[in-house]
Amino acid sequence: MSDRLDLETDVLIIGSGIAGASAALEASRAGLRVLVLNKSPQLEESNTYYAQGGIVALGVDDAPDLFVGDILESGDHTSDPRAAEVLASEGQEMVDRILIRELAIPFTRSSPAALDYAQEAGHSRRRILHVKDTTGRTIEERFLAALAKRKTVTLLADHTAVDLLTIPHHAKSPVAYYRAPRCLGAYIMDNTTRKVRAVFAPVTILATGGCGAVYLYTTNPDGAIGDGYAMALRAGARIVNMEYVQFHPTSLYHRDSDGFLISETVRGEGARLETRDGRAFMDKYSPQGDLAPRDEVTRAIYEEMIATNSSFVFLNLASYAKTDIRKRFPNIYRTCRGYGIDITREPIPVVPAAHYSCGGVLVDEWGQTTLPGLTAVGEVSCTGVHGANRLASTSLLEGLVWGTRAGRRIVERFEPGIPYKRSEIHPWYYPRREEEIDLALIQQDWRTIRSTLWNYAGIIRTRKRLERAQADLEYLLHRIEKFYREAQMDAKIVGLRNGILVALMIARAALSNPVSRGAHFRKD
Predict the structure, then answer these.
(1) Where does 343-431 show beta strands of DSSP type E?
(2) Which terminus of the chain has fewer CB atoms gathered within 10 Å of its CB, N or C?
(3) Of these residues, 294, 497, 517, 522, which one is catalytic?
(4) Shared-domain flag, residues 70 and 197
(5) pLDDT value of residue 157
(6) Crossing angle for the helix pair 491-512 and 439-456, nearest 10 degrees?
(7) Using CA atoms, how far apart are residues 49 and 129, in angstroms rounded to an integer?
(8) At 228, is the pLDDT very low, low, confident or very high (cuts 50, 70, 90)?
(9) Domain CATH number, residue 46
């Protein structure tokens, strides 16, 4: 059904994490009208909000070329050197100007005159700025507070982007098929009323985050199901490297915990991984020991769990801490304490979990996708920085840099209005159906998707497992598409439709790539 209460804006941003917020801030400086969308009732809900570790900045004995070298090494030398150089050369200035001076992020200090730089795996220097262990939350809250003060910025929560609005697909006239494809905005749904309307915008920015929640075990929030990847694929944008799903080696293992992440900085401050009988094991797998890149640590934990027939390993900070644990990791301490684990006295039970997608919607150095009118920033994009495996704490910096650069380029090249009359575009139409969606069917379909990916396209992959995953997911895709066409319009069915498509992207990409690199490990 359509109410034709369409909206117009200069820039539509789908997602409100650090990447989308950075783009919104930059575009609004020039007075452009910006609409920022979040499908959650809470505007701050994003992967950014849950990022504990920190954001990369150049340390006291650091240099851009050292940072670039660490990026390329962690990415298994499949990263784009140009993108890595952009991050290393522009990141520090943006951290100083935007985060420290403008947003006044209270980064932790080692003394009144010096910032505290943490160490994380894969980094050759201590270069991670942090707000204790709640860095992402602090940055997200400060960004949203700044955007709320800007008169040309509208923040819209509890609205789901259903699909990108594109030409020629949504044009009324068949003559439009002779024109080049272009994004003109998106169809969005009010989650409360379930009414859908079009938002017309000369520029649309995908900032929807990653897709860790399509796996059975993840450190991501429930909403991180890859909506942006699915919408971009349906619209015809190019997507690459979806097989490179990074698993974080250390999420809390507890029956009541829902993938709580134990930051990599815990190992940077001395913690060691041990088997359940207290044997440290990382030196056996990497010359970097417990500070090896994430993919190596994840596979080592997986192998030790198999070898010892265990469901978890221990992360021992209590015996090796180089810092005051309660002061340095207050959020981790409080959370673990809530589960009956005192990390100052005992080791933390941990398991790997899906964490970050290194691939995504292919973009250039300014965030432009292969579809005119569509920009992508943050985890949903593939800038080339991460290659086959992301270097720790580069994600927040990448979101800041590419979000800011995208906003800057949009301002420089902005042309108001869309190249079509609104009357030439189909209004949203969805047949009225009185029957409510069956939540049992949605829950079961999600269990199938997540279990299939975890078991067949997870940490260790084989051709036979991936073939099974692809076949099972393709069968489920047809059922879900039928479900989508017949069910009452609802955010849950929109998310399920996106999730199955993202799962298939991962399985197909992993099956088509027989070479083990970084986060993609084949054992055929």
Answers:
(1) 348-357, 360-362, 374-376, 381-382
(2) C
(3) 294
(4) yes
(5) 98
(6) 20
(7) 16
(8) very high
(9) 3.50.50.60
- From CA 306, how far away is CA 97, in angstroms rounded? 48
At position 303, the amino acid (one-letter code) is E
**Residues 63, 105 within the same domain:** yes
Domain count across the chain: 3
Query: What CATH number did the domain enclosing 296 receive?
Result: 3.90.700.10
Give the pLDDT band of residue 175 (cuts 50, 70, 90): confident
Q: Are 465 and 506 in contact (CB under 8 A)?
A: no
- As a whole number, mean pLDDT of residues 115-134 equals 91
| Residue 410 structural domain | 1-244+358-421
- Summarised one tens digit per residue, pLDDT across range 286-312 is 999 999 888 889 999 999 998 999 989
**Residue tagged 């029957």 (tokens):** 435
Question: Does one domain contain both 297 and 233?
Answer: no
The C-alpha atoms of residue 436 and residue 400 are separated, in whole angstroms, by 41
Q: Are 503 and 511 in contact (CB under 8 A)?
A: no
Give the C-alpha separation, 224 to 209, whole Å.
7
Distance (Å, whole) CA 133 – CA 10: 36
- Catalytic, 294? Answer yes
Q: Could you write out the DSSP letters of every residue in 329-368?
A: -HHHHHHHHHTT--TTTSPEEEEEEEEEES-EEE--TT-B
Distance between CA atoms of residues 415 and 486, nearest Å: 39
Same domain, 348 and 261: yes
Asked if pLDDT for residue 316 goes beyond 50, the answer is yes
